[in-house]
Every structure is written in C-alpha cells, then in structure tokens.
Amino acid sequence: MPDKKAKPFSATQYSMRYLRKQGFEVWKTEQTVRAPNPVAPGTFKIWKRDLFNFADLVAIRETTRGTLYVQTTTVSHQADRIAKVANLPVVQTIVKSGNFVHVHGWAKKGPRGGRKVWQLTVTEIGFDQDGMLTEKILDTEALDEDQAGLDFEKENDF
C-alpha cells in the first residue's frame, strides 16, 4: 500500500481557495525570478518577487468596488507582514484609490486531542485621514458561514 504523504501547506493556495468561495476572481501575482549569477558563472540566482513588493494575490468581484490585494502568510508571521505592508508607500496609494489590502494569516487549530483544521485570520490594512495606519480584523465567519475551520484536506481541487 503506497504511503499517503500530506501535501505541503501553501498559504497562497488556501487563500485562493477561500477567495474563490467568496465569489472572487483570483490571480496569483508572485513570480519566481531567475538571473545569471555573476559570482558563479553558469549558475543562476533565484528569488521570489511579489506585485508591489507585497501582493501574492489580486482579486476582483462584480459585487465589490475596487480591487483586493492580498499578502498571505501564517498567523505566526502575520504581524511582521502587516508591518511590512503598512510601511510601503504604494499601499497608501492603493487604499486611497478605493482598493483593499488584506493580510491573510493561516493557522491549524482545533480542540486539544481533536482534529485540527486550517483557520483564517484576515486583517484589513487602512489609513485614517492623517495617514496613520489602521488595522481591522475581519470576521471570516461573517463573510461565509462555512469558513470557520476550512477542511481542505478532504477536497482535492488543488
């Protein structure tokens, strides 16, 4: 009998799935860049680059005015990503022009000794009239009643 290996966790894939369930059209914007390495001829330097240096995903929905830009991560790194995103000047321009910036944080949670499922914390980045950062944690259950504990392991569409 072949071993069933667990699929590695991908915050980006989980966020894409979540947003599609919300009715968004979602596009991954992260690129893998490969360039010749001047230090070691014949080899390459490889790195990841996000849209505007933060957005892993861009999403639109007919019923939502503006575009949604999403940074995905785990809950343990979410505060760092919020700080990173908030300090980028382009983010104020994105928000002030009627768009949205969210930081998705994923964590596997559940009762002690019980089954654990991936849960999402969404933080919306905004700015007040003085240009000061505002953070609002969105209630993901209010967005869709079946999102409290997404059970992606049972579904095979990634």
Listing every helix as H and every strand as E from the N terminus to the C terminus, the arrangement reads: HEEEEEHHEEEH
Please state the average pLDDT score: 87
Q: In DSSP terms, counting alpha (H) and pi (I) runs of 4 or more, how many helices?
A: 4
Structural class by helix and strand composition: alpha+beta
- Overall structural domain count: 1
End-to-end distance: 23 Å
Percent of residues in helices comes to: 10-25%
Residue stretches low in confidence (pLDDT < 50, at least 5 long) are: 142-149, 153-158
Describe this entry's structure for a reader.
The chain is an alpha+beta fold. It has one domain. The protein is built from four helices and eight strands. The strands form two sheets. Strands 1-4-5-6-7-8 form a six-stranded mixed sheet, sandwiched between helices. The longest helix has 12 residues. The radius of gyration is 18 Å and the shape is globular. The two termini are 23 Å apart.
Which helices and strands appear, and what pairs or packs with what?
Layout: H1 11-21, E1 25-28, E2 31-36, E3 44-49, E4 57-61, E5 64-74, H2 75-86, H3 89-96, E6 100-109, E7 117-127, E8 133-138, H4 140-143
Parallel strand pairs: 5-6
Antiparallel strand pairs: 1-4, 2-3, 4-5, 6-7, 7-8
